[in-house]
Amino acid sequence: MEKITINHFPLQVKEYNGQRVVTFKDIDAVHGRPNGTARKRFNDNRKHFIEGEDYFKVCVSEIRTNKIMDISPKTQRDIILITESGYLMLVKSFTDDLAWSVQRQLVNSYFRLKDISYKQLFFNDEPKYEYFDKTLTLCTNSKVFFCGSFFKICIDKFVAT
After folding, report:
1. Residue 113 φ then ψ, to 5°
2. Which residues contact 48 (CB under 8 A, 6 or more apart)?
3. Model confidence pLDDT, tens digit, residues 122-131
4. Quick one: 134 exposed, middle or buried, by C-beta within 10 A (0-12, 13-18, 19+)?
5. Cα 58 to chain center, whole Å?
6. For helices 24-31 and 37-44, what crossing angle results, to 10°?
7. 36 in the Ramachandran plot: left (φ > 0), alpha (ψ -120 to 50) or beta?
8. Contact partners, residue 133, CB within 8 Å, separation at least 6
9. 69-113, pLDDT tens digit by residue?
């Protein structure tokens, strides 16, 4: 499974319902907070979170069947998966310098780069793309398909969506 390092912590990439998600344990780890901190903040402010938008409550059988993440065989309770919007709402009370740095890393390196991996963007340390006034120009052998504000890149036989 793919991992992205955030604040010296290897974060396993998890996707659910077409979105990258994180767990409370992930949030505590990358922010260097004691275990249970993110869950407590979530429970304290649960009325402000919208299920299906800020978080998903997923049964363990679905997580195992779809291989969303590694979980203990002993786990029986539903797992809450936090989306980007839920993450940003949850950690807005984390205001120390480390929290600001980690938030930026997670948003830019985890949530926002879900469609294009570093392996696709760089070849021999040379970028495969350039931005010109909102236009994405790729190297030859690549095609870009635009659909609203989203784009799909086809590089050789690999498709990122």
Report:
1. -100, 25
2. 89
3. 444 444 444 3
4. exposed
5. 16
6. 120
7. left
8. none
9. 989 989 999 999 999 999 988 988 787 788 888 888 888 777 776
